[in-house]
Amino acid sequence: MTALSLSKSLRLGALALSVLVVASCSSLTGKSVAVTKTGDNPAPMVVPEGTEPDDVVIGRREHPRIIAAYGGVYSDREAEIMVARIVGRLLAAANQPNAQFQVTILDTSEVNAFALPGGYIYVTRGILALASDTSELAAVLAHEIAHVTLRHARARTDKTRTTQIVDRVVTGIFGGDTSTDATANRTRESLAAFGQSQELEADREGIKFAGKAGFDPQAASRFLGVMSRFAAFSAGEKAGDDGFLSSHPSTPQRIQKAVETSQQMFGSASVGETDRNGYMAAISGLAFGDSPSQGSIVGNRFIQSGSKFTFTVPQGYTLQTAQSAVVGVAGDGEAVRFDSADVQPNMPLTDYLKSGWIAGLKSETVTSHTYNGIEMASGLAQTDQWFFRVAVMRLDGAVYRFIFAAKADSQRFAAGADATIKSFRRAEAADLNQIRKLSMRVVTAKAGDTADKLAAQMAGIPGGRDLFYILNNLYPGDPVKVGERYKVVGPN
Protein backbone atom coordinates (compact mmCIF):
# COMPACT_ATOMS: atom_id res chain seq x y z
CA MET A 1 0.00 0.00 0.00
CA THR A 2 1.33 3.39 -0.83
CA ALA A 3 0.66 6.95 0.25
CA LEU A 4 -2.27 8.83 -1.17
CA SER A 5 -1.26 12.17 -2.61
CA LEU A 6 -2.95 15.40 -3.66
CA SER A 7 -0.24 16.91 -5.81
CA LYS A 8 3.39 16.43 -6.69
CA SER A 9 4.40 18.83 -3.94
CA LEU A 10 2.38 17.02 -1.32
CA ARG A 11 3.75 13.66 -2.46
CA LEU A 12 7.27 14.98 -2.00
CA GLY A 13 6.32 16.35 1.40
CA ALA A 14 4.88 13.02 2.48
CA LEU A 15 7.83 11.08 1.09
CA ALA A 16 10.26 13.14 3.08
CA LEU A 17 8.91 11.80 6.36
CA SER A 18 8.51 8.09 5.79
CA VAL A 19 9.98 5.62 8.28
CA LEU A 20 11.35 2.14 7.83
CA VAL A 21 10.00 -1.18 9.16
CA VAL A 22 10.87 -4.92 9.13
CA ALA A 23 10.81 -7.90 6.80
CA SER A 24 11.47 -11.63 6.61
CA CYS A 25 14.29 -13.43 4.84
CA SER A 26 14.92 -16.77 3.24
CA SER A 27 18.49 -17.85 2.53
CA LEU A 28 18.50 -19.97 -0.64
CA THR A 29 21.09 -21.72 -2.74
CA GLY A 30 21.02 -23.26 -6.17
CA LYS A 31 21.59 -26.76 -4.73
CA SER A 32 19.37 -26.66 -1.71
CA VAL A 33 15.88 -25.68 -0.71
CA ALA A 34 16.79 -25.09 2.91
CA VAL A 35 15.17 -21.91 4.15
CA THR A 36 16.39 -19.80 7.04
CA LYS A 37 14.29 -16.95 8.35
CA THR A 38 16.34 -14.05 9.60
CA GLY A 39 16.38 -10.31 9.65
CA ASP A 40 20.10 -9.75 9.30
CA ASN A 41 21.68 -12.58 7.33
CA PRO A 42 25.29 -11.89 6.25
CA ALA A 43 26.07 -11.62 2.59
CA PRO A 44 26.05 -14.94 0.70
CA MET A 45 29.31 -16.90 0.85
CA VAL A 46 29.15 -17.80 -2.85
CA VAL A 47 27.83 -14.86 -4.83
CA PRO A 48 26.76 -14.71 -8.49
CA GLU A 49 29.51 -15.04 -11.07
CA GLY A 50 31.01 -11.69 -11.99
CA THR A 51 30.16 -10.11 -8.66
CA GLU A 52 32.79 -7.65 -7.52
CA PRO A 53 33.87 -7.28 -3.87
CA ASP A 54 32.23 -3.87 -3.74
CA ASP A 55 28.93 -5.47 -4.74
CA VAL A 56 29.00 -7.70 -1.69
CA VAL A 57 29.72 -4.68 0.52
CA ILE A 58 26.85 -2.75 -1.07
CA GLY A 59 24.45 -5.64 -0.66
CA ARG A 60 25.47 -6.25 2.94
CA ARG A 61 25.10 -2.55 3.77
CA GLU A 62 21.74 -2.06 2.08
CA HIS A 63 20.16 -5.36 3.10
CA PRO A 64 19.24 -4.34 6.67
CA ARG A 65 17.92 -1.04 5.34
CA ILE A 66 15.64 -2.88 2.95
CA ILE A 67 14.57 -5.14 5.79
CA ALA A 68 13.77 -2.02 7.77
CA ALA A 69 11.92 -0.45 4.85
CA TYR A 70 9.24 -3.03 4.21
CA GLY A 71 6.62 -5.01 6.02
CA GLY A 72 7.15 -6.94 9.21
CA VAL A 73 8.32 -10.51 9.57
CA TYR A 74 6.22 -12.89 7.46
CA SER A 75 6.56 -16.61 7.97
CA ASP A 76 4.92 -19.16 5.68
CA ARG A 77 6.78 -22.43 5.33
CA GLU A 78 4.92 -23.63 2.24
CA ALA A 79 5.46 -20.37 0.37
CA GLU A 80 9.13 -20.23 1.39
CA ILE A 81 9.82 -23.75 0.17
CA MET A 82 8.04 -23.03 -3.12
CA VAL A 83 10.12 -19.89 -3.67
CA ALA A 84 13.30 -21.77 -2.81
CA ARG A 85 12.62 -24.51 -5.34
CA ILE A 86 11.80 -22.02 -8.08
CA VAL A 87 14.96 -20.01 -7.40
CA GLY A 88 17.10 -23.16 -7.45
CA ARG A 89 15.84 -24.09 -10.89
CA LEU A 90 16.27 -20.57 -12.20
CA LEU A 91 19.85 -20.34 -10.96
CA ALA A 92 20.75 -23.53 -12.80
CA ALA A 93 19.15 -22.15 -15.97
CA ALA A 94 21.08 -18.90 -15.50
CA ASN A 95 24.36 -20.85 -15.32
CA GLN A 96 24.66 -19.94 -11.64
CA PRO A 97 24.16 -23.40 -10.06
CA ASN A 98 26.66 -22.82 -7.28
CA ALA A 99 25.74 -19.23 -6.48
CA GLN A 100 23.78 -18.23 -3.42
CA PHE A 101 21.02 -15.71 -3.84
CA GLN A 102 19.52 -14.50 -0.62
CA VAL A 103 15.81 -14.20 -1.31
CA THR A 104 13.75 -12.20 1.13
CA ILE A 105 9.97 -12.48 1.35
CA LEU A 106 8.72 -9.12 2.59
CA ASP A 107 5.57 -8.99 4.70
CA THR A 108 3.82 -6.22 2.84
CA SER A 109 0.78 -6.04 0.61
CA GLU A 110 2.72 -3.82 -1.79
CA VAL A 111 3.22 -5.52 -5.16
CA ASN A 112 6.96 -5.28 -5.46
CA ALA A 113 10.13 -7.18 -6.29
CA PHE A 114 13.65 -5.87 -6.65
CA ALA A 115 17.33 -6.80 -6.39
CA LEU A 116 20.52 -5.51 -4.80
CA PRO A 117 24.15 -6.15 -5.77
CA GLY A 118 25.75 -9.21 -4.24
CA GLY A 119 22.86 -11.62 -4.83
CA TYR A 120 20.04 -10.10 -2.77
CA ILE A 121 16.53 -10.50 -4.17
CA TYR A 122 13.28 -9.33 -2.59
CA VAL A 123 9.70 -10.37 -3.29
CA THR A 124 6.61 -9.28 -1.37
CA ARG A 125 3.62 -11.33 -0.35
CA GLY A 126 1.69 -8.87 -2.50
CA ILE A 127 3.42 -10.46 -5.49
CA LEU A 128 2.59 -13.92 -4.16
CA ALA A 129 -1.08 -12.93 -3.90
CA LEU A 130 -1.22 -11.55 -7.43
CA ALA A 131 0.48 -14.48 -9.19
CA SER A 132 -1.67 -17.51 -10.04
CA ASP A 133 0.85 -20.25 -10.77
CA THR A 134 4.52 -21.15 -10.36
CA SER A 135 5.44 -19.92 -13.82
CA GLU A 136 4.20 -16.40 -13.04
CA LEU A 137 6.20 -16.25 -9.82
CA ALA A 138 9.16 -17.71 -11.70
CA ALA A 139 8.83 -14.89 -14.25
CA VAL A 140 9.15 -12.30 -11.48
CA LEU A 141 12.08 -14.04 -9.80
CA ALA A 142 13.84 -14.68 -13.12
CA HIS A 143 13.48 -10.99 -13.99
CA GLU A 144 15.18 -10.00 -10.71
CA ILE A 145 17.91 -12.63 -11.09
CA ALA A 146 18.54 -11.18 -14.54
CA HIS A 147 18.98 -7.72 -13.04
CA VAL A 148 21.68 -9.16 -10.79
CA THR A 149 23.49 -11.23 -13.43
CA LEU A 150 23.36 -8.26 -15.81
CA ARG A 151 24.71 -6.11 -12.99
CA HIS A 152 21.86 -3.62 -13.26
CA ALA A 153 21.55 -3.44 -9.51
CA ARG A 154 25.12 -2.16 -9.26
CA ALA A 155 24.41 0.44 -11.93
CA ARG A 156 21.31 1.56 -10.05
CA THR A 157 23.30 1.91 -6.83
CA ASP A 158 25.90 4.00 -8.66
CA LYS A 159 23.09 6.19 -9.98
CA THR A 160 21.75 6.60 -6.47
CA ARG A 161 25.08 8.02 -5.32
CA THR A 162 24.78 10.87 -7.79
CA THR A 163 21.12 11.64 -7.17
CA GLN A 164 20.76 15.11 -5.70
CA ILE A 165 17.04 15.64 -6.22
CA VAL A 166 15.98 13.97 -3.00
CA ASP A 167 18.55 15.88 -0.99
CA ARG A 168 17.11 19.14 -2.28
CA VAL A 169 13.56 18.02 -1.57
CA VAL A 170 14.26 16.85 1.97
CA THR A 171 16.42 19.84 2.79
CA GLY A 172 14.25 22.41 1.03
CA ILE A 173 10.91 21.23 2.38
CA PHE A 174 11.73 19.69 5.70
CA GLY A 175 15.33 20.48 6.52
CA GLY A 176 17.21 17.77 8.34
CA ASP A 177 20.24 15.61 7.65
CA THR A 178 19.59 13.73 4.41
CA SER A 179 22.46 11.32 5.04
CA THR A 180 20.52 9.77 7.92
CA ASP A 181 16.97 10.44 6.80
CA ALA A 182 15.23 7.12 6.27
CA THR A 183 12.90 8.50 3.64
CA ALA A 184 15.70 10.09 1.68
CA ASN A 185 17.30 6.67 1.39
CA ARG A 186 13.99 5.11 0.31
CA THR A 187 13.29 7.87 -2.18
CA ARG A 188 16.79 7.70 -3.64
CA GLU A 189 16.09 4.04 -4.31
CA SER A 190 12.85 4.95 -6.06
CA LEU A 191 14.46 7.68 -8.16
CA ALA A 192 17.29 5.34 -9.11
CA ALA A 193 14.91 2.70 -10.47
CA PHE A 194 16.00 0.71 -13.49
CA GLY A 195 15.71 2.43 -16.83
CA GLN A 196 13.45 1.20 -19.62
CA SER A 197 16.30 -0.42 -21.54
CA GLN A 198 17.40 -2.28 -18.40
CA GLU A 199 13.84 -3.47 -17.74
CA LEU A 200 13.47 -4.77 -21.28
CA GLU A 201 16.87 -6.44 -21.10
CA ALA A 202 15.92 -8.10 -17.81
CA ASP A 203 12.58 -9.14 -19.32
CA ARG A 204 14.32 -10.89 -22.19
CA GLU A 205 16.96 -12.54 -20.02
CA GLY A 206 14.37 -13.52 -17.41
CA ILE A 207 12.11 -15.14 -20.02
CA LYS A 208 15.12 -17.11 -21.23
CA PHE A 209 15.97 -18.26 -17.68
CA ALA A 210 12.38 -19.24 -16.93
CA GLY A 211 11.92 -21.11 -20.19
CA LYS A 212 15.20 -22.98 -19.82
CA ALA A 213 14.21 -23.89 -16.25
CA GLY A 214 11.07 -25.56 -17.60
CA PHE A 215 8.50 -22.90 -16.70
CA ASP A 216 5.94 -21.50 -19.12
CA PRO A 217 7.82 -18.63 -20.85
CA GLN A 218 4.52 -16.93 -21.70
CA ALA A 219 3.93 -16.32 -18.00
CA ALA A 220 5.95 -13.09 -18.10
CA SER A 221 3.54 -11.37 -20.50
CA ARG A 222 0.58 -12.87 -18.67
CA PHE A 223 1.71 -11.53 -15.32
CA LEU A 224 2.60 -8.12 -16.76
CA GLY A 225 -1.00 -7.94 -17.95
CA VAL A 226 -2.33 -8.82 -14.49
CA MET A 227 -0.10 -6.15 -12.95
CA SER A 228 -1.41 -3.60 -15.42
CA ARG A 229 -4.98 -4.38 -14.37
CA PHE A 230 -4.04 -4.27 -10.71
CA ALA A 231 -2.35 -0.90 -11.22
CA ALA A 232 -5.57 0.49 -12.69
CA PHE A 233 -7.56 -0.98 -9.80
CA SER A 234 -5.10 0.48 -7.29
CA ALA A 235 -5.29 3.91 -8.90
CA GLY A 236 -8.90 4.05 -7.78
CA GLU A 237 -8.25 2.58 -4.34
CA LYS A 238 -4.96 4.30 -3.50
CA ALA A 239 -3.52 7.02 -5.68
CA GLY A 240 0.20 6.89 -6.23
CA ASP A 241 2.33 3.74 -6.09
CA ASP A 242 6.00 3.54 -5.23
CA GLY A 243 6.31 -0.19 -5.75
CA PHE A 244 6.78 -2.72 -8.56
CA LEU A 245 3.91 -1.20 -10.50
CA SER A 246 5.77 2.10 -10.89
CA SER A 247 9.35 0.86 -11.11
CA HIS A 248 8.32 -2.01 -13.42
CA PRO A 249 5.66 -0.34 -15.63
CA SER A 250 3.34 -2.77 -17.41
CA THR A 251 2.87 -0.90 -20.66
CA PRO A 252 1.11 -2.56 -23.63
CA GLN A 253 4.31 -2.27 -25.63
CA ARG A 254 6.28 -4.04 -22.92
CA ILE A 255 3.69 -6.80 -22.69
CA GLN A 256 3.77 -7.27 -26.46
CA LYS A 257 7.56 -7.34 -26.38
CA ALA A 258 7.44 -10.12 -23.78
CA VAL A 259 5.02 -12.08 -25.98
CA GLU A 260 7.34 -11.72 -28.97
CA THR A 261 10.39 -12.71 -26.93
CA SER A 262 8.79 -15.90 -25.62
CA GLN A 263 7.62 -16.83 -29.13
CA GLN A 264 11.04 -16.19 -30.64
CA MET A 265 12.80 -18.26 -28.00
CA PHE A 266 10.33 -21.08 -27.37
CA GLY A 267 7.64 -20.93 -30.07
CA SER A 268 4.04 -19.82 -29.95
CA ALA A 269 2.62 -22.94 -28.31
CA SER A 270 2.12 -22.85 -24.55
CA VAL A 271 4.90 -24.99 -23.14
CA GLY A 272 6.44 -25.46 -19.75
CA GLU A 273 5.21 -25.90 -16.21
CA THR A 274 2.52 -23.76 -14.66
CA ASP A 275 1.52 -26.00 -11.71
CA ARG A 276 -1.48 -23.88 -10.79
CA ASN A 277 -2.71 -26.42 -8.25
CA GLY A 278 0.65 -26.61 -6.48
CA TYR A 279 0.92 -22.84 -6.39
CA MET A 280 -2.58 -22.43 -5.01
CA ALA A 281 -1.83 -24.96 -2.29
CA ALA A 282 1.32 -23.05 -1.33
CA ILE A 283 -0.41 -19.68 -0.97
CA SER A 284 -3.56 -20.95 0.72
CA GLY A 285 -3.85 -19.05 3.99
CA LEU A 286 -1.49 -16.28 2.81
CA ALA A 287 -2.09 -13.06 4.73
CA PHE A 288 -3.74 -10.46 2.51
CA GLY A 289 -3.73 -6.69 2.79
CA ASP A 290 -2.14 -4.77 5.61
CA SER A 291 -0.50 -6.76 8.37
CA PRO A 292 -2.18 -6.06 11.74
CA SER A 293 1.28 -5.94 13.29
CA GLN A 294 1.92 -2.85 11.13
CA GLY A 295 -1.38 -1.29 12.06
CA SER A 296 -4.94 -1.48 10.79
CA ILE A 297 -7.32 1.11 9.41
CA VAL A 298 -10.91 0.94 10.59
CA GLY A 299 -12.89 3.74 8.98
CA ASN A 300 -11.16 6.98 9.98
CA ARG A 301 -9.27 5.31 12.83
CA PHE A 302 -5.82 3.78 12.91
CA ILE A 303 -5.22 0.96 15.40
CA GLN A 304 -1.72 -0.37 16.09
CA SER A 305 -2.06 -3.76 17.77
CA GLY A 306 1.67 -4.24 18.30
CA SER A 307 2.40 -1.01 20.16
CA LYS A 308 -1.22 -0.79 21.29
CA PHE A 309 -2.22 2.74 20.41
CA THR A 310 -4.92 4.32 18.31
CA PHE A 311 -5.96 7.69 16.89
CA THR A 312 -8.81 9.11 14.80
CA VAL A 313 -8.63 11.58 11.92
CA PRO A 314 -11.46 13.98 11.00
CA GLN A 315 -14.31 12.87 8.75
CA GLY A 316 -13.43 13.51 5.13
CA TYR A 317 -9.93 12.07 5.38
CA THR A 318 -9.12 8.83 3.59
CA LEU A 319 -6.46 6.82 5.42
CA GLN A 320 -3.88 4.56 3.81
CA THR A 321 -0.77 2.87 5.14
CA ALA A 322 2.50 3.81 3.47
CA GLN A 323 5.35 1.62 4.70
CA SER A 324 5.61 2.42 8.42
CA ALA A 325 3.64 5.60 8.00
CA VAL A 326 -0.06 6.35 7.79
CA VAL A 327 -1.23 9.03 5.38
CA GLY A 328 -4.63 10.65 5.36
CA VAL A 329 -5.79 12.86 2.52
CA ALA A 330 -8.84 15.11 2.42
CA GLY A 331 -10.43 16.21 -0.83
CA ASP A 332 -10.05 19.87 0.04
CA GLY A 333 -6.27 19.97 -0.25
CA GLU A 334 -5.22 18.81 3.21
CA ALA A 335 -3.17 15.85 4.37
CA VAL A 336 -1.88 14.28 7.55
CA ARG A 337 1.06 11.97 7.94
CA PHE A 338 1.76 9.85 11.00
CA ASP A 339 5.08 8.07 11.51
CA SER A 340 7.80 7.44 14.08
CA ALA A 341 11.27 8.78 14.75
CA ASP A 342 14.44 7.80 16.59
CA VAL A 343 14.83 10.25 19.46
CA GLN A 344 17.20 9.98 22.40
CA PRO A 345 15.28 9.04 25.58
CA ASN A 346 16.65 12.05 27.46
CA MET A 347 15.82 14.58 24.74
CA PRO A 348 12.77 16.75 25.55
CA LEU A 349 10.16 16.61 22.81
CA THR A 350 10.24 20.40 22.50
CA ASP A 351 13.98 20.20 21.77
CA TYR A 352 13.37 17.48 19.18
CA LEU A 353 10.81 19.66 17.42
CA LYS A 354 13.41 22.42 17.21
CA SER A 355 16.26 20.14 16.12
CA GLY A 356 16.01 21.01 12.42
CA TRP A 357 14.16 18.05 10.92
CA ILE A 358 11.38 20.26 9.63
CA ALA A 359 12.01 23.47 7.73
CA GLY A 360 10.16 26.66 8.44
CA LEU A 361 9.44 25.79 12.05
CA LYS A 362 8.26 28.75 14.10
CA SER A 363 10.13 28.12 17.32
CA GLU A 364 7.98 30.51 19.34
CA THR A 365 4.93 28.30 18.67
CA VAL A 366 6.45 25.14 20.18
CA THR A 367 4.69 24.07 23.36
CA SER A 368 4.56 20.96 25.52
CA HIS A 369 1.42 19.33 26.90
CA THR A 370 -0.09 16.04 28.00
CA TYR A 371 -3.19 14.34 26.62
CA ASN A 372 -4.55 10.97 27.74
CA GLY A 373 -1.54 10.65 30.03
CA ILE A 374 0.88 10.86 27.08
CA GLU A 375 3.69 13.42 26.85
CA MET A 376 3.42 15.58 23.72
CA ALA A 377 4.78 18.71 22.05
CA SER A 378 3.48 20.66 19.08
CA GLY A 379 4.28 23.61 16.87
CA LEU A 380 3.67 25.36 13.56
CA ALA A 381 5.80 25.48 10.42
CA GLN A 382 5.45 27.22 7.09
CA THR A 383 7.18 27.05 3.72
CA ASP A 384 6.49 28.88 0.48
CA GLN A 385 3.75 26.43 -0.50
CA TRP A 386 2.58 24.70 2.67
CA PHE A 387 1.42 25.38 6.18
CA PHE A 388 2.18 22.63 8.72
CA ARG A 389 0.90 21.72 12.15
CA VAL A 390 3.33 19.31 13.73
CA ALA A 391 3.06 17.23 16.90
CA VAL A 392 5.27 14.60 18.51
CA MET A 393 4.45 12.24 21.37
CA ARG A 394 6.37 9.74 23.47
CA LEU A 395 4.70 6.44 24.35
CA ASP A 396 6.56 3.63 26.12
CA GLY A 397 9.88 5.11 25.02
CA ALA A 398 8.91 5.38 21.33
CA VAL A 399 8.38 8.77 19.67
CA TYR A 400 5.65 9.29 17.08
CA ARG A 401 4.93 12.27 14.83
CA PHE A 402 1.88 13.90 13.26
CA ILE A 403 2.48 16.23 10.32
CA PHE A 404 -0.62 18.05 9.09
CA ALA A 405 -0.25 19.92 5.79
CA ALA A 406 -2.51 22.46 4.08
CA LYS A 407 -2.09 25.18 1.52
CA ALA A 408 -3.12 27.69 4.16
CA ASP A 409 -4.07 27.67 7.82
CA SER A 410 -7.72 27.88 8.84
CA GLN A 411 -9.84 27.42 11.93
CA ARG A 412 -11.25 24.17 10.56
CA PHE A 413 -7.78 22.84 9.70
CA ALA A 414 -6.50 23.77 13.17
CA ALA A 415 -9.51 22.15 14.87
CA GLY A 416 -9.05 18.94 12.88
CA ALA A 417 -5.36 18.72 13.73
CA ASP A 418 -6.05 19.43 17.39
CA ALA A 419 -8.78 16.77 17.57
CA THR A 420 -6.53 14.18 15.94
CA ILE A 421 -3.68 14.89 18.34
CA LYS A 422 -5.98 14.67 21.34
CA SER A 423 -7.40 11.36 20.07
CA PHE A 424 -4.01 9.65 20.31
CA ARG A 425 -4.27 7.18 23.20
CA ARG A 426 -3.50 3.65 24.30
CA ALA A 427 -5.60 1.01 22.55
CA GLU A 428 -7.99 -1.00 24.65
CA ALA A 429 -9.39 -4.50 24.10
CA ALA A 430 -12.49 -3.05 22.42
CA ASP A 431 -10.25 -1.26 19.91
CA LEU A 432 -8.19 -4.34 19.11
CA ASN A 433 -11.33 -6.41 18.59
CA GLN A 434 -12.26 -4.16 15.66
CA ILE A 435 -9.25 -5.29 13.63
CA ARG A 436 -10.21 -7.59 10.80
CA LYS A 437 -7.53 -9.93 9.48
CA LEU A 438 -7.82 -11.02 5.86
CA SER A 439 -6.24 -14.04 4.22
CA MET A 440 -6.20 -15.87 0.91
CA ARG A 441 -8.54 -18.83 0.64
CA VAL A 442 -8.46 -21.25 -2.25
CA VAL A 443 -11.81 -22.60 -3.44
CA THR A 444 -12.52 -25.29 -6.03
CA ALA A 445 -15.15 -24.50 -8.63
CA LYS A 446 -18.11 -26.87 -8.61
CA ALA A 447 -20.76 -27.59 -11.22
CA GLY A 448 -23.04 -24.58 -11.50
CA ASP A 449 -20.45 -22.11 -10.20
CA THR A 450 -19.83 -18.89 -12.08
CA ALA A 451 -17.16 -16.23 -11.65
CA ASP A 452 -19.73 -13.85 -10.23
CA LYS A 453 -20.89 -16.47 -7.74
CA LEU A 454 -17.33 -17.02 -6.52
CA ALA A 455 -16.65 -13.27 -6.52
CA ALA A 456 -19.68 -12.78 -4.26
CA GLN A 457 -17.65 -14.39 -1.48
CA MET A 458 -15.57 -11.17 -1.47
CA ALA A 459 -18.60 -8.87 -1.26
CA GLY A 460 -17.57 -7.62 2.17
CA ILE A 461 -14.29 -6.21 0.84
CA PRO A 462 -14.20 -2.80 -0.90
CA GLY A 463 -13.94 -3.46 -4.62
CA GLY A 464 -14.09 -7.18 -3.86
CA ARG A 465 -15.75 -8.25 -7.11
CA ASP A 466 -13.22 -6.44 -9.30
CA LEU A 467 -10.38 -7.65 -7.11
CA PHE A 468 -11.55 -11.26 -7.47
CA TYR A 469 -11.37 -11.01 -11.27
CA ILE A 470 -7.89 -9.49 -11.17
CA LEU A 471 -6.48 -11.97 -8.64
CA ASN A 472 -7.67 -14.84 -10.81
CA ASN A 473 -6.88 -13.19 -14.18
CA LEU A 474 -10.53 -13.39 -15.26
CA TYR A 475 -12.89 -10.96 -16.94
CA PRO A 476 -16.65 -10.55 -16.42
CA GLY A 477 -18.40 -13.22 -18.46
CA ASP A 478 -15.47 -15.64 -18.39
CA PRO A 479 -16.46 -19.16 -17.38
CA VAL A 480 -14.84 -20.95 -14.46
CA LYS A 481 -13.65 -24.51 -14.89
CA VAL A 482 -15.12 -27.21 -12.71
CA GLY A 483 -12.37 -28.61 -10.50
CA GLU A 484 -10.11 -25.58 -11.03
CA ARG A 485 -8.86 -23.66 -7.99
CA TYR A 486 -9.52 -19.95 -7.53
CA LYS A 487 -8.38 -17.33 -5.05
CA VAL A 488 -10.87 -15.72 -2.68
CA VAL A 489 -10.01 -13.19 0.02
CA GLY A 490 -11.91 -13.15 3.27
CA PRO A 491 -11.66 -12.79 7.05
CA ASN A 492 -9.52 -15.28 8.93
Automatic annotation (TrEMBL):
Leader peptide range in chain numbering: 1-23
Presence of keyword Zinc: yes
GO MF terms held by the record: metal ion binding; metalloendopeptidase activity
Ranges of residues in domain Peptidase M48: 83-260
Record's GO cellular component terms: membrane
Keyword Protease: yes
Keywords: Hydrolase, Metal-binding, Metalloprotease, Protease, Signal, Zinc
Required co-factors: Zn(2+)
BP GO annotations: proteolysis involved in protein catabolic process
Pfam (any one): Peptidase_M48
Gene3D superfamilies in UniProt: Metalloproteases ('zincins'), catalytic domain
Protein name: Peptidase M48 domain-containing protein
Protein source organism: Devosia soli
Classification of source organism: Bacteria, Pseudomonadati, Pseudomonadota, Alphaproteobacteria, Hyphomicrobiales
